[in-house]
Amino acid sequence: MKQDVNISIRSVYTAEEESTTTELFTVGSLCKKNGHYYITYKETETTGFDGCTTTMKVEDERVTVIRRGPTTSHLVLQKGVRNVGRYEMMGNPLEIGVFTDGLESTIGENGGSLHLKYTMDMNSALLSENELEISVTRIS
User: Fold this and answer.
1) How far is it, in rounded angstroms, from Cα 73 to Cα 64?
2) How confident is the model at residue 111 (pLDDT cuts 50, 70, 90)?
3) What separation in angstroms does the CA of 25 have from each of 17, 19, 28, 69, 101?
4) What does the CA dihedral 19, 45, 33, 4 come to, rounded to 10 degrees?
């Protein structure tokens, strides 16, 4: 069952000791398929991914983030594991390492929250430290 939800995303991106915080409040959808929850929303200029659609597949121990549009990415976040993901910007494909330090989820049929803390690297060089706080609430 797919339902409309309000989504609040607070993201902190730290690179070279400079932090940038962005907040996005949007409407999206939440659905359950094959025992996993999917959160889907449209990105805006605020996040720097205007024109993209992002889907998060929330599993027990893992979150997969898929972004489609002018910028595409496929990242798997799993606590304590470094995964290599795809990122494409302006037609240039990149392989990015993603190590997840923290993953906490209360996402269920009525919404909930998701907290992710992870680092991204390229060729073993640290690109950024990232933290996402996501809140999903049903629209009554």
Assistant:
1) 10
2) very high
3) 26, 20, 10, 20, 25
4) 110
Tally of domains in the chain: 1
pLDDT tens digits, residue range 78-110? 999 999 988 887 778 888 999 999 999 999 999
Q: Residue 47 above 80 pLDDT? A: no
Domain range enclosing 35: 2-138
Q: Is 98:80 a contact under the CB 8 Å cutoff?
A: no
Q: What is the CATH number of the domain that holds 104?
A: 2.40.128.20
State the Cα–Cα distance between residues 93 and 71, nearest whole angstrom. 10
